[in-house]
Design brief:
Length: 281
């Protein structure tokens, strides 16, 4: 025995695609218990495809995903849902469903023929709605909510599921910047309480601020994996994202902060500020 613990999640020689060329090719990755892993990369690099495979949504072309050491696809859906919860990108709610009813769906994996609705379910739903700031909107139809409120309603369902591992595909979509940080702080607090979190984020500063580990992808491959301060460098941002930048410590958190350089302005006549052309009469 080498003393190594079994990862919560592991991808083994994973190849993923949608019928054409592979989106992800021969990828290996693991997530240990208690980590806050954020996957970053340009659009189309395969990060959301990978997350959905970890969550048992995408079936591998080759290779496999292990959940606590066992092939995730060999496990029953309810058993998987008790171990991990997936917040997909832009989910669709059933027509007419209320916020509370959507949150209640998160309790389904905990129900059996012998155990149906219980006071424990009510406590979980109320707690999730309070954490997401939706208590006053509990009886409102999800379809009538703003984009940000709707996203928080889906988050409440994931929290109600009460799974020890959370998979989050761009969870801050449609949220203004204040609510983005509120939500990320919530996930950080859940992580501090012992949850394992794996998220896909677009904002490098947010990813570096909240992650204990960053996985950077490009063209279906992992190009860097480690602590944010080691992964986010000016050279790597230039190579992966095509963005010239400086990287410096955030003045508050000391985590990497990306400062983009000015983009080159195309050649051509430019009207100076204060030109007579801007005047009328």
């Amino acid at each position: 025995m080498n003393g190594e613990t079994t990862p919560v999640l592991a991808a083994r020689s994973l190849t993923l695609g949608y019928g054409g060329d592979p989106v992800v090719s021969d990828l290996d990755m693991k997530v240990d218990e208690g980590e806050f892993v954020v996957i970053v990369g340009p659009n189309g690099c395969g990060k959301s495809t990978l997350l959905k495979a970890l969550g048992r949504v995408n079936r591998p072309v080759r290779g496999k995903v292990l959940l606590h050491g066992e092939d995730v696809r060999s496990q029953r859906a309810k058993a998987v849902a008790r171990k991990l919860a997936l917040l997909p990108q832009s989910p669709l709610a059933p027509e007419g469903i209320t916020v509370r009813a959507l949150a209640a769906r998160g309790r389904f994996p905990h129900h059996t023929l012998l155990r149906q609705w219980s006071p424990e379910d009510e406590v979980a739903i109320s707690g999730a709605l309070e954490l997401t700031g939706l208590t006053d909107l509990a009886e409102t139809q999800v379809g009538s909510l703003s984009g940000g409120q709707r996203q928080r309603a889906w988050v409440s369902m994931v929290l109600t599921q009460d799974s020890p591992t959370l998979l989050l595909d761009e969870p801050t979509t449609f949220l203004d910047i204040a609510h983005q940080y509120d939500l990320l702080e919530l996930f950080a607090e859940l992580h501090r309480q012992g949850r394992t979190v794996v998220a896909v984020l677009h904002d490098l500063a947010q990813a570096a601020r909240f992650a204990t580990r960053l996985v950077m992808m490009r063209d279906g491959e992992i190009v860097a994996d480690g602590p944010p301060a080691e992964v986010v460098t000016a050279d790597r941002v230039r190579t992966v994202f095509g963005l010239d930048c400086d990287v410096m410590p955030d003045p508050r958190t000391r985590t990497p902060l990306v400062i983009p350089h000015e983009r080159a302005v195309p050649d051509g006549p430019r009207e100076p500020q204060g030109s007579d052309h801007a005047r009328v009469g």
